[in-house]
C-alpha cells in the first residue's frame, strides 16, 4: 500500500519531468530564432503578396486571359566572349521566369530568329507588334553596363556577374 512519502516522490518526479520538458521546449524555440515564428505565420496566413507595380499603374495584368508579351533584351556589345551572348541568355531567362508565373510569352527563340533575320536590329515596338500580331505588350530590358569582375580589381578574378546599370520599359500595343 502506497504511503504519503511515495505519493510525494511521484508528484515531485512528475513536476521535475514537466519542468525539464518546458525548459527544453523553450530552449529549442529561442535557439531557432524568429524564423520559427515567420514560418508558422506563413503556414497559417500564406506568403505575403505584393501587387505588381505594373498592375497597379496600368490597371491591366500580364496574367489576364488572351494577353501575350514579347521580351527583348539589349546588352552592350562586349569585346570578350563572355558577354557576347548576354542579351540572348538574359532574354531566354526572363521569358522562362515569366512562363513560370503563368504569363503567356512569345518564345524567345522565335523572337531571336526574327531579330537575326533583320540584322540584329529590332527597329521599334511598331515593327515587333506588326510581326507578332498576337502580342499585346513588349517588355524591353536594357543592360547599359555589365561586369563579371569586381570593379577596379581585374587581377582578383572574383566572378560576380553584376549589372551595373539596368533599365526596363514596357510598351502596350497601340
Helices and strands, with pairings:
Blueprint: H1 4-32, H2 35-45, H3 53-58, E1 69-74, H4 86-100, H5 108-117, H6 125-131, E2 137-149, E3 159-172
Parallel strand pairs: 1-2
Antiparallel strand pairs: 2-3
Kindly report how far apart the N and C termini lie: 95 Å
Radius of gyration: 29 Å
Count every beta strand, where a strand is a DSSP E run of 2 or more residues: 3
Helix content range:
40-55%
The SSE order reads HHHEHHHEE
Shape: elongated
Sheet with most strands: 3 strands, mixed
Biggest sheet, spatial arrangement of strands: 1-2-3
Low-confidence stretches: none
SS-based structural class? Answer: alpha+beta
Helix count, DSSP H or I runs of 4 or more residues: 6
The percent range for strand residues is 15-25%
- Mean of pLDDT: 75
Keywords:
174 residues, alpha+beta, three-stranded mixed beta sheet, 3 strands, 45% helix, elongated
What does this structure look like?
By secondary structure, the protein is of the alpha+beta class. 45% of the residues lie in helices and 19% in strands. The chain has six helices and three strands, in the order H-H-H-E-H-H-H-E-E. The model has no long low-confidence stretch (mean pLDDT 75).
Amino acid at each position: 500500500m502506497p504511503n504519503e512519502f511515495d505519493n510525494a516522490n511521484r508528484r515531485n518526479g512528475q513536476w521535475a519531468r514537466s519542468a525539464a520538458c518546458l525548459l527544453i521546449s523553450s530552449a529549442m524555440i529561442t535557439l531557432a530564432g524568429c524564423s520559427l515564428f515567420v514560418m508558422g505565420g506563413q503556414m497559417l496566413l500564406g506568403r505575403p503578396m505584393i501587387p505588381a507595380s505594373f498592375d497597379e499603374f496600368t490597371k491591366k495584368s500580364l496574367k489576364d486571359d488572351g494577353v501575350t508579351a514579347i521580351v527583348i533584351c539589349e546588352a552592350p556589345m562586349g569585346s570578350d566572349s563572355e558577354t557576347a551572348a548576354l542579351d540572348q541568355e538574359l532574354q531566354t531567362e526572363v521569358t522562362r521566369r515569366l512562363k513560370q508565373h503563368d504569363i503567356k510569352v512569345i518564345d524567345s527563340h522565335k523572337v531571336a530568329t526574327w531579330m537575326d533575320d533583320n540584322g540584329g536590329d529590332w527597329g521599334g515596338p511598331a515593327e515587333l507588334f506588326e510581326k507578332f500580331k498576337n502580342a499585346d505588350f513588349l517588355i524591353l530590358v536594357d543592360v547599359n553596363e555589365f561586369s563579371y569582375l569586381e570593379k577596379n580589381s581585374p587581377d582578383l578574378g572574383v566572378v560576380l556577374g553584376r549589372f551595373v546599370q539596368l533599365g526596363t520599359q514596357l510598351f502596350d500595343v497601340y
